[in-house]
């Protein structure tokens, strides 16, 4: 049977979208950016802190590359000179030596920043006067003297771009440590006398870190009142910005208590990060298997549909409150009109959210869903069928296997379908071809599990010959062979980050493999019967397993640094759920990271 015309048209229209999505996904994996963003980032500094530290001593005070693009402030040089002079005079008149020394460290980088901004704006004559008037402030400090001497050789925009030291300084923020009292005094001054240019420079190019032992005036007064200090000490605290020696000792003691509390909080946060995550809730759907003919059961993504193989038919249940499926017309040769159905018959018709898809001539063994909602099923009758959920019709039948098909999986983008069969092969399909595109031959016994890698470039197959094989999708070449299981493999699952694969089966154990090294990392024990389903959490840190013993187990997979730059892996059993089901058919993490399981009673 050929694919319906509607499906072919839909696939042709979506072909360009699939290509665009594939290219976009590739670029994201390679960490490329869009052209527009790349052009903007060309203006930003790309050097690391270590490279910048070699250029000059100024890098010792630089925090990190700034995300702000080079831009010249629209400025009035006369106002800038006046505002800088006023700020310098205010700092020099501060009575507290500690506060004065902290705020004085602001003048040199602010002077350099204003000098470069004015020069960038084309005010060469005003820049020369500004530099000559204020350069004497920075002769005493070694670091400031080196930077000012470097600025003395800068006369044009070309000189700015050619000087590594100045280029680094312009592209980075300046970190300045201030005590709370110093910061409060600076804020008070800026609120009363701050100019827009000064405020813009401080906001864009300075990174203030608040800390230290100095206290604000109100806090000092409250502390002295609580301690019952005399009237003379209280007046002294009101007149000064910082307290004397006795008060500093008390403040240091209190600061040390805060540091202890902060360290305890950091330890707790570290324990939470290193410890196992809390178990997620389990959502269990149970199928009443009175006839003992349920072969498989699955849910996907948003968990809005439950699909199961009941004998030779595919049964669908809508899991939402709204009716999911329209009732198909049983006789396609007749069209029912509104006059053919009485109102009483319409009202008495039961509201059902269940539908059956019939067409297979043998038991259904596997079901998979495409991103657009199309379903595919495999059966003992050696065929794979595609089902349209809109009209509940069979869109196509795919033939190629010579023996019963046990499993099926769809690639991440929905471009390919893989099947595994009793004929010891796995086959690659595309919906627009009714014959297989690739044949993966190499197993000695039945292929009972297939799984696409998240990047859709590799296919993993598990067999009753107790091995897991990894194949390249493009040329069907064998990439990895992972032996070690003591029984047939029934389930496979790749981690979302693509680094690991979990396998399980008749030996009642779950094995986690490192794909890059081709070695086993962990062996998880606990099930008492065959493991039938596996699923990784969205963060690739947990793997869930279910089995014919009716139990669900969730394991936390953690990597720990070992000796000689090696990495050791450990596992913790986060949760173990016991159900009343005879067997569990599948388990998966939903889009909301909820654990969803399908079982049979």
UniProtKB/TrEMBL annotation:
WD repeats: 357-388, 398-432, 440-481, 482-523, 524-559
Organism: Cryptotermes secundus
Subcellular location: Nucleus
Disordered: annotated span: 216-236
CDD domains (UniProt xref): TAF5_NTD2, WD40
Compositionally biased spans, kind Acidic residues: 217-234
Keyword entries, A-Z: Nucleus, Repeat, Transcription, Transcription regulation, WD repeat
Record-given protein name: TAF5-like RNA polymerase II p300/CBP-associated factor-associated factor 65 kDa subunit 5L
Source organism superkingdom: Eukaryota
Family that this chain belongs to: Belongs to the WD repeat TAF5 family.
GO cellular component: nucleus
Transmembrane parts of this sequence: none
Main subcellular location of this protein, as a coarse class: nucleus
UniProt keyword Protein transport present: no
Sequence ranges assigned to domain TFIID subunit TAF5 NTD2 in this UniProt record: 76-204
Pfam family, one: WD40
């Amino acid at each position: 049977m050929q694919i319906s015309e509607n499906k072919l048209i839909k696939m042709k229209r979506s072909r360009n979208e699939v290509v665009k999505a594939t290219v976009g996904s590739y670029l994201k994996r390679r960490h490329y950016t869009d052209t527009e963003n790349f052009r903007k980032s060309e203006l930003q500094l790309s050097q690391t802190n270590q490279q910048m530290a070699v250029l000059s001593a100024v890098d010792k005070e630089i925090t990190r590359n700034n995300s702000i693009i080079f831009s010249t402030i629209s400025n009035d040089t006369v106002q800038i000179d006046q505002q800088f002079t006023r700020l310098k005079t205010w700092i020099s008149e501060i009575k507290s030596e500690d506060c004065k020394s902290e705020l004085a460290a602001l003048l040199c980088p602010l002077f350099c920043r204003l000098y470069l901004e004015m020069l960038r704006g084309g005010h060469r004559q005003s820049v020369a006067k500004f530099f000559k008037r204020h350069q004497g402030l920075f002769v005493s400090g070694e670091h400031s003297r080196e930077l000012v001497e470097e600025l003395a050789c800068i006369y044009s925009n070309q000189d700015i771009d050619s000087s590594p030291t100045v280029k680094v300084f312009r592209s980075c923020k300046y970190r300045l440590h201030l005590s709370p009292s110093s910061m409060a005094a600076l804020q008070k001054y800026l609120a009363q006398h701050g100019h827009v240019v000064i405020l813009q420079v401080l906001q864009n190019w300075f990174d203030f870190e608040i800390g230290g032992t100095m206290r604000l005036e109100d806090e000092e007064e409250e502390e002295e009142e609580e301690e019952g200090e005399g009237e003379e000490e209280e007046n002294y605290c009101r007149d000064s910005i910082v307290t004397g020696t006795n008060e500093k000792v008390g403040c240091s003691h209190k600061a040390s208590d805060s540091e202890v509390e902060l360290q305890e909080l950091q330890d707790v946060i570290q324990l939470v990060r290193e410890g196992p995550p809390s178990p997620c809730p389990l959502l269990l759907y149970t199928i009443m298997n009175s006839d003992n003919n349920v072969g498989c059961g699955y849910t996907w993504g948003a968990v809005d549909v439950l699909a199961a193989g009941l004998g030779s038919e595919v049964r669908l249940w809508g899991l939402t409150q709204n009716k999911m499926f329209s009732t198909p017309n049983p006789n396609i040769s007749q069209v029912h009109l509104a006059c053919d159905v009485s109102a009483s018959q319409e009202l008495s018709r039961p509201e059902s959210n269940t539908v059956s898809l019939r067409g297979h001539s043998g038991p259904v063994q596997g079901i998979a869903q495409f991103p657009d909602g199309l379903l595919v099923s495999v059966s003992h009758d050696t065929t794979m069928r595609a089902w349209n959920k809109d009209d509940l019709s069979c869109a196509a039948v795919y033939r190629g296997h010579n023996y019963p098909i046990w499993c099926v999986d769809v690639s991440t983008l929905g471009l390919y379908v893989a099947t595994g069969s009793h004929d010891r092969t796995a086959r690659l399909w595309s919906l627009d071809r009714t014959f297989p595109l690739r044949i993966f031959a190499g197993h000695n016994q039945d292929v009972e599990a297939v799984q696409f890698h998240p990047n859709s470039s590799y296919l993993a197959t598990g067999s009753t010959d107790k091995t897991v094989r990894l194949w390249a999708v493009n040329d069907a070449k064998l990439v990895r062979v992972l032996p070690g299981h003591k029984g047939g493999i029934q389930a496979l699952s790749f981690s979302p980050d693509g680094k690991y694969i979990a396998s399980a089966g008749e030996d009642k154990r779950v094995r986690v493999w490192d794909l890059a090294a081709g070695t086993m990392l962990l062996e998880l024990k606990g099930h008492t019967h065959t493991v039938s389903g596996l699923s990784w959490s969205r963060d690739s840190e947990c793997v869930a397993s279910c089995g014919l013993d009716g139990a669900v187990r969730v394991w936390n997979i953690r990597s720990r640094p070992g000796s000689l730059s090696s990495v050791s892996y450990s596992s913790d059993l986060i949760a173990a759920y016991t159900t009343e089901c005879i067997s569990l058919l599948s388990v998966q993490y939903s889009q909301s990271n909820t654990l969803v399981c399908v079982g049979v009673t």
